[in-house]
Every structure is written in structure tokens, then in C-alpha cells.
């Protein structure tokens, strides 16, 4: 069932928006620390940090490493007072699954459109860059492309699951 607005009258909408804005300002709301900026309380630098992931990140970003790992991480804003932020965990932890379970990517290939029978499933719990690369690879491997020649200059691509 589609949602319908309580009113479509422009004057009433402006009044509602004005009242909401006033209430918002009166609450003296202060922004909260964003998830990626929060310190991860369980991260232990010597145990969880993977310097090869930092090196890969710097290469992808086109940056050179002229300082030690900790200084580079501080300059990136992911290490604060010798403690790693959640963003740092997502990019540079040996396994994010141990520290940030909700960041694990699960890919599945189903038989048909009902999502009942699973043909293939894969969980990725590496760093966020590797997880995205692996998820895209999974999707590319799971889609079959059929080329239909239409008699025109361009062919028609028909995609279907394995």
C-alpha cells in the first residue's frame, strides 16, 4: 500500500517545516560522532593491523609512504591517540569479521526468483576494498550473458543467472 502525505497544501507544509526546524533548534542538538570516526574499543594494533593493506590502499590512492605506519594512519584520520577508528578497522584490519561483524558481505546465487534454493553462497570478511572486489567478481561469475544478433549494428545482451 503506497504512503500518502498528510497534506499537500503548500502553506501547511511550510508551517510544518518551520515548526520542525524551530523544535530542532530549541533542542540544542549537537551532532554525534559518526560511526567511522568512533574509536573501535577491541582493536589491538599489534594483533589486528595488516600493513600490507595499508600499502595497497596507498598505492590505489596514489599516495607515497614516507613515514611509519602509525604516522600515515594518523594523517589519514583513522588512528587517534594510538587507537584505531571504525574506518581504520574496515580498511586495515586483518579480518573485519572478528571486529565488525556487520561489515561481512554475503553473496548468494539462487535458483529462480523465489530465493529458496541456493546454488552458490560466499561470505567475504577481508578489508572493505577486497570485499567489494570479491563481491563484484562473484556477481560477474554468476551472470551468464547471451548475445543475440539483431541484424543491426549493435547486438542485444541478455543476462541470466547460471
Structure commentary:
By secondary structure, the chain is an alpha+beta fold. The chain folds into 2 domains: 35-94, no CATH class; 104-161, no CATH class. 41% of the residues lie in helices and 18% in strands. The chain has 7 helices and 6 strands, in the order H-H-H-H-E-E-H-H-E-E-H-E-E. Strands 1-2 form a two-stranded antiparallel sheet. Strands 3-4 form a two-stranded antiparallel sheet. The longest helix has 17 residues, at 10-26. The mean pLDDT is 83.
Topology of this protein?
Blueprint: H1 10-26, H2 45-48, H3 51-61, H4 69-76, E1 79-80, E2 83-84, H5 86-92, H6 96-99, E3 105-110, E4 118-124, H7 128-142, E5 143-148, E6 156-161
Antiparallel strand pairs: 1-2, 3-4, 5-6
Rg over CA atoms, rounded to whole Å, is 24 Å
Write the element-wise H/E pattern from the N-terminal end onward.
HHHHEEHHEEHEE
Largest β sheet strand count, sense and barrel closure: 2 strands, antiparallel
N→C terminal distance? 34 Å
Query: Structural class, judged by helices and strands?
Result: alpha+beta
Say how many strands there are.
6
Which regions are unreliable across 5 or more consecutive residues at pLDDT < 50? none
Instruction: Determine the strand fraction and express it as a percent band.
Output: 15-25%
Count structural domains: 2
Biggest sheet, spatial arrangement of strands:
1-2
Give keywords.
162 residues; 2 domains; alpha+beta; single chain; 18% strand; 6 strands; two-stranded antiparallel sheet; 7 helices; 41% helix
Amino acid at each position: 500500500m503506497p504512503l500518502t502525505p498528510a497534506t499537500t497544501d503548500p502553506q501547511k507544509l511550510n508551517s510544518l517545516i518551520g515548526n520542525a526546524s524551530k523544535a530542532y533548534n530549541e533542542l540544542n542538538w549537537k551532532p554525534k560522532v559518526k560511526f567511522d570516526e568512533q574509536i573501535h574499543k577491541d582493536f589491538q594494533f599489534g594483533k589486528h593491523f595488516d600493513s600490507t593493506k595499508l600499502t595497497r590502499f596507498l598505492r590505489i590512492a596514489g599516495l607515497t609512504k614516507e613515514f611509519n605506519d602509525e604516522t600515515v594512519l594518523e594523517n589519514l584520520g583513522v588512528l587517534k591517540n594510538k587507537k584505531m577508528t571504525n574506518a581504520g578497522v574496515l580498511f586495515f584490519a586483518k579480518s573485519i569479521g572478528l571486529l565488525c561483524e556487520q561489515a561481512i558481505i554475503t553473496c548468494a546465487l539462487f535458483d529462480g526468483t523465489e530465493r529458496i534454493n541456493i546454488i552458490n553462497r560466499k561470505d567475504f570478511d577481508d578489508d572493505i576494498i577486497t570485499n567489494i572486489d570479491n563481491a563484484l567478481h562473484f556477481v560477474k561469475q554468476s551472470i551468464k550473458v547471451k548475445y543475440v544478433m539483431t541484424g543491426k549494428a549493435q547486438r542485444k545482451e541478455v543476462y541470466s543467472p547460471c
